[in-house]
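Our preliminary data section would be incomplete without showing what the modeling component actually yields. Below, a chain of 445 amino acids is followed by its predicted structure, encoded as tokens that our downstream tools consume directly.
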Amino acid sequence: MRLTILGGGGFRVPLVYGALLADRGEGRVTEVVLHDPDGGRLDAVARVLAEQGSAAGGAPRVTVTTDLDEALCGADFVFSAIRVGGLEGRANDERVALAEGVLGQETVGAGGIAYGLRTVPVAVDIARRVARLAPDAWVINFTNPAGLVTEAMSRHLGDRVLGICDSPVGLGRRVARVLGANPEEAWIDYVGLNHLGWLRGLRVAGRDELPRLLADPGLLGSFEEGRLFGADWLRALGAIPNEYLHYYYFNRETVRAYQEAERTRGAFLRDQQARFYEEARRPDRSALDLWERTRAEREATYMAENRETAGAGEREADDLSGGYEKVALALMRAIARDERTTLILNVRNHSTLAVLDADAVIEVPCLVDASGAHPVSVDPLPGHATGLVCAVKAVEREVLAAAESGSRATAVKAFALHPLVDSVNVAHRLVEGYTAVHPGLAYLG
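Predicted structure:
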């Protein structure tokens, strides 16, 4: 079975390859094709993968290419993990937004809109090429903003594109751990959009254990989301929000913390990974050891400003191991081998949430088998969550419309309608600022 990874020079690709090495089942991946426009990054990541596979018998063969069509031809699965504009683009997204006093995070607020406007045209081109060159392939989208990009691609690939994110998985795992439950045996009631969802229940043997957690201040203070949001707010919500909702519920504090930080997250990762790719090319260094050290630092500093604002302390050791690669492998196995499973995925709504239309991509538990992912029926969202989901989905639709039409006015509208952008005048200045620093937004007339 052939797996093509777009963005194959990306830093997290070794996580995916490591998961493949651990998979010994029938019908496993035997060939991995890495595609990236940056040949130097491809070579560095290929070195890491070669070291990973050297001690493993039967490791999938790895090839690299900078030719997109060549990479797609013959693919059974396509992992899309591109970053349009690179980490320099992410750093600019943050800088322009913070200068206007609004959030520049890569998936939330102004930064997410800018990233989406750059990424959607490229993702749509990829979807069209897949439909032409590999019509039987399944596309698993990692690219952020994951829900928005998956929806853009679904207009050309239908339900054969599925988006994944490790945030809901990590949240469910933490809540289960605190409650003394096995995450593999728990049913997680989770619903929303990507990076905008709520865990509303965790059932073990048919019993919802979440009320027990919400009633116990000690348990609530023992895991990351409990410390981020505080026991009182979680009890008021009656749910555990995805960690990214901290940007909404504590926006003023978060923006201030990011403005006062020595460097933004994007700038930190840009500088860190530049060092990694430079050193990984040296023949006298172990590229794998270097990658592992760099990854440990990356994971430990994740959302550091948010945790500092909330007084949440350091990340737990169990939360430093990633997880999205495990979701991707489980998804691929379920489809390729008909190993039926339940996963939280970004999929087309169909009739799952009545407040959104059938084509809107949402993030919900899905039953997955050889025919794809099927969203599970869920209870309606409460009013406060419905309002936020509908508002952000409306923004995503404006982003898609702007990317399709090239309309600058529609791009301004997307920024202005976002709950975390507080002025139409700010929206105009954001579009001016982003088009000035991003060549990828030259299409906005």
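The radius of gyration is 21 Å. The chain is about 50% helix and 15% strand. Preliminary results of this kind motivate Aim 1 of the renewal.
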